Amino acid sequence: MKRSAMMLALAGVMMAGTTPALADTVVKIGFAGPLTGPISHVGKDEQFGAQLALDDANAKGVTLAGQKVKFELMSEDDQADPRTATTVAQRLVDAGVKGVIGHVTSGAAIPASRIYEQAGIPAITPSSTSPKLTRQGYKTTYRVIANDTQQGSAMAKFATGVLKAQRIAVIDDRTAYGQGLADALVDSLKQLGIKPVGREFTNDKATDFAAILTKLKATKPDAIFYGGMDAQGAPLLKQMKQLGISAKYLAGDGACTAEMIKIAGAAMSGDVYCTQAGIPMDKMPAGKAFNERFTKRFNVPVQLYAPYSYDATNALIEAMKLANSSDPAKYLAQLQKVSFKGVTGNIAFDAQGDSREGGVALYQFNGGKWESRP
Fold this sequence. Notes:
Blueprint: H1 3-16, E1 25-33, H2 40-60, E2 62-64, E3 67-77, H3 82-94, E4 100-102, H4 106-119, E5 123-125, E6 141-143, H5 148-162, E7 168-172, H6 176-191, E8 198-201, H7 210-217, E9 223-227, H8 230-242, E10 248-251, H9 258-264, E11 272-277, H10 287-298, H11 306-323, H12 328-331, E12 340-341, E13 346-347, E14 360-366, E15 369-372
Parallel strand pairs: 1-3, 1-4, 4-5, 5-6, 7-8, 7-9, 9-10, 10-11
Antiparallel strand pairs: 2-3, 11-14, 12-13, 14-15
Helix pairs in contact: 2-11, 3-4, 5-6, 8-9
């Protein structure tokens, strides 16, 4: 037998006796949020949180129905725009994602949720806090964070009980998030027997608030609440200072960010407060370790919602494990049975899809950073 023929024969024997390695089954998880624009830092924060959860799952190894799976994140930029949100939601559905993390803002999450419901694909938001989101009766809609009703109540009690504010003016950006949060505050103030001295509106693209603030200045408020994101909240605070308005500045979680401090600069002096759905990172069961790993992996610290995005992603994976399947039709029902200790605390959902243990934290700006209040 010639040498070449012998080598081919030996190769054939070796191949016949070798079991080929099976390729991992790829399971796509979608992410949707603003990855460009003025609040892209919030969107990327959540995107990175989801990616870290998938990295961890892949490193540990997950087997479903006897087949090892590899999770991949498919990210879409909804620009925090309701119309764009429905477009990217359909794109994720058409791409065959098995679950979605997002959307980041309530204005985007609410219209997108209908697309996921029709497709039967679970979507868990780490940060959309509008109560309307989970009151639509959709079986596929979940969230891992407290809602605006809880935030509004907490801020109303803090403003009146601790800060002793009685003349409170309210501004919101007319988005589902901003208006929803402002409405929740106003409703809670009403229950405490307080009517706002002014209620004004802007939009989430505005940069000039002089007319609104001049009008409110005449009401002599001792506190002004803004419902919206830091991209507008910071310049609004700056213009308050420029107009000589000494009222305390109050806001929700959209302005409770490192970016708010960066943009507002010197205007952050004085009484500036915010609420945040959830608990302070230093009080999260695994908050410190998570921030260290996150910073090392992405070279940026946690902005705001990354821990919740991480837990939301793991909730999808846990439901898949319970069902032994990544098929949404099989694992959707298991989301109601999910219960585990996440970075942010105990993760479990009620019948509406809301977090069973959603808490609210209060912060005050002090010494160049946000400090949690007791």
